[in-house]
């Protein structure tokens, strides 16, 4: 066979691979949305799941739990992640401790999420005595999300041009002031984009939550906003299943009459949420960048 | 500038130049506080990692130390908790085989897509495949599991008979899930190859395929392998998507169409249903320890490979 023909065939094969992958994605998203849209309506988004026998109802509490857990996780992760990222980008000197932190980041970010969930079960659920609770779930998700967050902040900070930092230091302001007033604002678009993408990952996580936040959702009363009350949606010590956990649970137990419908609708909600997170992250990053650069010119 | 000057003279403190040379204690204090604050937050990572390693290890080796389970019992293939047989070998093999197969399926596709993005259609190919892989990464694993359960399992059942659950379904689902990892690492590797190497090859009259197959793939082999191993590690630790399509029977994983189990699937299914402190429950923690050790081994392997790649370049 001559070389040109082989080259043609190879090119065709590469095109086929690309079309296959894009096709898989379109098929996947199309299937999920098509199946989901038939189920999703206002009632599905707001109502609690119906009884086991009759089915019906929706995923209102689960949807709320997903968002609330995300907020709790981010409340813990963002300050710690900023601190860790700043340290790694600005203060860390090459040495044993820095090396150890780097290794920790690497190992923690490649741990299977089920292992993180089991660690959460051991420490945040059993050892603290909180039982299955939102706060245990949020801490487990922190274990899972923090290394990513530190990396995002570090990368965003090191991407700031060196000249900006040098100019700030040359003006006589201190290192810490340089970090707060010059480097962080300049790194903000990258940090924000990365954080929202990480949030999307947290939003769909289930394996780390099954044994920490629990798989059940007791009745919650959406008129009671006192965080100390056991039926309040804001109470961080109540067990709560999220959307992703709920999908797994209705499928695994398969006692619920309308498991397939619930799972279709919830999957579509999850995918829509992840797509929105993706688009929003990009848009917000660009928006902040535009605002910062234009305001600094003025 | 005039105001502080007059202030200083009125209070008749040590000379102005001296005063300016000495930083304010308050500034020094915030400086130090900032440093400590960030240092502590980065230490959190070390604390988390070590407590995780210690907790899981001590839980995992407990049944062996207490003598509830012997090594030969644990590493056998008979799983029958009611008869005190806790053989987990078929689950370990199940995890290994399903992730290796997924990596084997995914590697040619992912590397092919990376070649398409860097060598064949760098402009529009990248514009299509970049967002594609990003969205594939973003889709939650339960959603993959659910689609596998509603599309792939029935499809296998109709085409090949049997239940549909099993190794093949697991491999298909996982190979799609790890595709983005392989694609993005491969793209990075191909991009790190200098342009002049390609130009030299083309100048010698080689076709594009000859350049790709004899030059690019060979030079970037260590990098490509890193991507594949990373994908394999991800597949090994994946729990819910696998559990939903693998079938959850205790068969040995040597047939594409019989339902099997993996370490992750058996842990997910049973951790909630077994009594704390029972041998059954403790053995599940031992499996979690195996999962942890395997992850660490994958990390060591990847480190070794990247080091080798850096030496080669």
TrEMBL record, chain A:
<dbReference type="InterPro" id="IPR000515">
    <property type="entry name" value="MetI-like"/>
</dbReference>
<dbReference type="GO" id="GO:0035435">
    <property type="term" value="P:phosphate ion transmembrane transport"/>
</dbReference>
<dbReference type="InterPro" id="IPR005672">
    <property type="entry name" value="Phosphate_PstA"/>
</dbReference>
<keyword id="KW-0813">Transport</keyword>
<dbReference type="Pfam" id="PF00528">
    <property type="entry name" value="BPD_transp_1"/>
</dbReference>
<dbReference type="GO" id="GO:0005315">
    <property type="term" value="F:phosphate transmembrane transporter activity"/>
</dbReference>
<protein>
    <recommendedName>
        <fullName>Phosphate transport system permease protein PstA</fullName>
    </recommendedName>
</protein>
<feature type="transmembrane region" description="Helical">
    <location>
        <begin position="262"/>
        <end position="281"/>
    </location>
</feature>
<keyword id="KW-1133">Transmembrane helix</keyword>
<dbReference type="GO" id="GO:0005886">
    <property type="term" value="C:plasma membrane"/>
</dbReference>
<feature type="transmembrane region" description="Helical">
    <location>
        <begin position="131"/>
        <end position="153"/>
    </location>
</feature>
<feature type="transmembrane region" description="Helical">
    <location>
        <begin position="107"/>
        <end position="125"/>
    </location>
</feature>
<comment type="similarity">
    <text>Belongs to the binding-protein-dependent transport system permease family. CysTW subfamily.</text>
</comment>
<feature type="transmembrane region" description="Helical">
    <location>
        <begin position="67"/>
        <end position="87"/>
    </location>
</feature>
<feature type="transmembrane region" description="Helical">
    <location>
        <begin position="12"/>
        <end position="34"/>
    </location>
</feature>
<dbReference type="InterPro" id="IPR035906">
    <property type="entry name" value="MetI-like_sf"/>
</dbReference>
<keyword id="KW-0472">Membrane</keyword>
<feature type="transmembrane region" description="Helical">
    <location>
        <begin position="182"/>
        <end position="203"/>
    </location>
</feature>
<keyword id="KW-0812">Transmembrane</keyword>
<feature type="domain" description="ABC transmembrane type-1">
    <location>
        <begin position="63"/>
        <end position="281"/>
    </location>
</feature>
<keyword id="KW-1003">Cell membrane</keyword>
From TrEMBL, chain B:
<comment type="similarity">
    <text>Belongs to the binding-protein-dependent transport system permease family. CysTW subfamily.</text>
</comment>
<dbReference type="GO" id="GO:0005315">
    <property type="term" value="F:phosphate transmembrane transporter activity"/>
</dbReference>
<keyword id="KW-0813">Transport</keyword>
<protein>
    <recommendedName>
        <fullName>Phosphate transport system permease protein</fullName>
    </recommendedName>
</protein>
<dbReference type="InterPro" id="IPR051124">
    <property type="entry name" value="Phosphate_Transport_Permease"/>
</dbReference>
<keyword id="KW-0592">Phosphate transport</keyword>
<dbReference type="InterPro" id="IPR035906">
    <property type="entry name" value="MetI-like_sf"/>
</dbReference>
<dbReference type="InterPro" id="IPR000515">
    <property type="entry name" value="MetI-like"/>
</dbReference>
<keyword id="KW-1003">Cell membrane</keyword>
<dbReference type="InterPro" id="IPR011864">
    <property type="entry name" value="Phosphate_PstC"/>
</dbReference>
<feature type="transmembrane region" description="Helical">
    <location>
        <begin position="224"/>
        <end position="246"/>
    </location>
</feature>
<feature type="transmembrane region" description="Helical">
    <location>
        <begin position="283"/>
        <end position="304"/>
    </location>
</feature>
<keyword id="KW-1133">Transmembrane helix</keyword>
<feature type="domain" description="ABC transmembrane type-1">
    <location>
        <begin position="92"/>
        <end position="302"/>
    </location>
</feature>
<dbReference type="GO" id="GO:0006817">
    <property type="term" value="P:phosphate ion transport"/>
</dbReference>
<comment type="function">
    <text>Part of the binding-protein-dependent transport system for phosphate; probably responsible for the translocation of the substrate across the membrane.</text>
</comment>
<keyword id="KW-0472">Membrane</keyword>
<keyword id="KW-0812">Transmembrane</keyword>
<dbReference type="Pfam" id="PF00528">
    <property type="entry name" value="BPD_transp_1"/>
</dbReference>
<dbReference type="GO" id="GO:0005886">
    <property type="term" value="C:plasma membrane"/>
</dbReference>
<feature type="transmembrane region" description="Helical">
    <location>
        <begin position="36"/>
        <end position="56"/>
    </location>
</feature>
<feature type="transmembrane region" description="Helical">
    <location>
        <begin position="89"/>
        <end position="115"/>
    </location>
</feature>
């Amino acid at each position: 066979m001559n070389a040109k023909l082989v080259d043609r065939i190879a090119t065709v094969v590469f095109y086929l691979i690309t079309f296959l992958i894009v096709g898989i994605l379109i098929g996947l998203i199309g299937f999920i949305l098509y199946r989901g849209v038939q189920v999703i309506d206002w009632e599905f988004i707001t109502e609690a799941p119906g009884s086991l026998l009759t089915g019906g109802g929706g995923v209102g509490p689960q949807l709320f739990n997903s968002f609330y857990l995300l907020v709790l996780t981010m409340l813990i992760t963002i300050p710690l992640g900023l601190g860790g990222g700043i340290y790694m980008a600005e203060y860390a000197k090459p040495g044993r401790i820095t090396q150890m932190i780097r290794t920790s980041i690497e190992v923690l970010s490649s741990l299977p999420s089920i292992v993180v969930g089991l660690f959460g079960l051991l420490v945040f659920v059993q050892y603290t005595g909180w039982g299955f609770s939102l706060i245990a779930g949020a801490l487990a998700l922190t274990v899972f999300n923090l290394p990513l967050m530190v990396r995002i902040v570090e990368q965003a900070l090191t991407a700031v041009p060196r000249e900006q930092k040098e100019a700030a230091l040359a003006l006589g302001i201190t290192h810490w002031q340089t970090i707060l007033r010059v480097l962080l604002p300049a790194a903000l678009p990258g940090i924000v984009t990365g954080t929202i993408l990480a949030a999307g990952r947290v939003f769909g996580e289930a394996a780390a939550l099954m044994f920490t936040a629990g798989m059940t959702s007791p009745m919650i009363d959406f008129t009671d906003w006192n965080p100390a009350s056991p039926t309040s949606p804001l109470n961080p010590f109540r067990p709560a299943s999220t959307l992703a956990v709920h999908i797994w649970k209705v499928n695994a137990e398969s006692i619920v009459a309308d498991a397939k419908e619930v799972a279709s609708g919830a999957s579509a909600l999850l995918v829509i949420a992840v797509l929105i997170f993706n688009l929003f992250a990009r848009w917000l990053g660009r928006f902040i960048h535009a605002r910062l650069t234009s305001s600094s010119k003025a | 500038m005039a105001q502080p000057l007059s202030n200083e003279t009125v209070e008749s403190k040590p000379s102005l130049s001296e005063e300016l040379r000495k930083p304010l204690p308050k500034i020094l204090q915030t400086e130090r506080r900032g440093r400590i604050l960030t240092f502590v937050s980065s230490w959190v990572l070390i604390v988390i990692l070590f407590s995780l390693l210690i907790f899981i290890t001590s839980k995992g080796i407990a049944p062996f130390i207490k003598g509830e389970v012997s090594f030969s019992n644990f590493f056998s293939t008979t799983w029958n908790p009611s008869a005190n047989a806790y053989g987990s070998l078929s689950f370990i093999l199940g995890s290994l085989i399903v992730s290796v197969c997924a990596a084997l399926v995914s590697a040619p596709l992912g590397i092919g897509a990376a070649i398409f993005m860097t060598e064949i259609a760098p402009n529009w190919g990248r514009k299509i495949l970049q967002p594609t892989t990003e969205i594939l990464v973003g889709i939650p694993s339960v959603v993959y599991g659910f689609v596998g359960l509603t599309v792939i399992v029935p499809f296998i059942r109709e085409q090949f008979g049997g239940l549909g659950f099993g190794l093949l379904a697991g491999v298909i689902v996982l190979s799609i899930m790890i595709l983005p990892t392989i694609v993005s690492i491969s793209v990075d590797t191909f991009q790190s190859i200098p342009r002049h190497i390609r130009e030299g090859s083309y100048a010698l009259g080689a076709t594009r395929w000859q350049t790709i197959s004899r030059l690019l793939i060979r030079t970037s082999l260590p990098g490509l392998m890193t991507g594949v191993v990373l994908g394999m590690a991800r597949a090994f630790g994946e729990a819910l998507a696998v559990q939903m399509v693998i079938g959850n029977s205790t068969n040995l994983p040597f047939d594409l169409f019989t339902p099997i189990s993996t370490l992750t699937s058996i842990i997910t299914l049973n951790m909630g249903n077994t009594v704390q402190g029972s041998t059954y429950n403790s053995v599940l923690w031992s499996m979690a320890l195996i999962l942890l050790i395997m992850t660490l081994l994958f990390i060591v392997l990847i480190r070794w490979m990247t080091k080798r790649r850096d030496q080669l370049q």
